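Retry 2 of 3 after timeout on previous attempt. Resubmitting C-alpha cells to design endpoint.
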C-alpha cells in the first residue's frame, strides 16, 4: 500500500541542517525520514497536551 505524499520546502539554518544530516547518518536513515518522524512525534505530543 502506498501512502499519498506531498513535497514541501522548509528553510532551516545551516547549522540545523548540518546537525540533522549528521543525526540521520548516525541512525542510518534519510534526513527526510528523521524530519517526518520528528514532526509526527511533535504532533502526538501537542494532541496529548490539548486533551486536558
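Retry 2 succeeded. Sequence:
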Amino acid at each position: 500500500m502506498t501512502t499519498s505524499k506531498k513535497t514541501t520546502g522548509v528553510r532551516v539554518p545551516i547549522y540545523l541542517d548540518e546537525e540533522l544530516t549528521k543525526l540521520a547518518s548516525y541512525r542510518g536513515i534519510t534526513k527526510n525520514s528523521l524530519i517526518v518522524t520528528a514532526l509526527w512525534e511533535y504532533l502526538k505530543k501537542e494532541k496529548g497536551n490539548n486533551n486536558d
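Attempt log closed. Helices lie at 14-27, 31-49.
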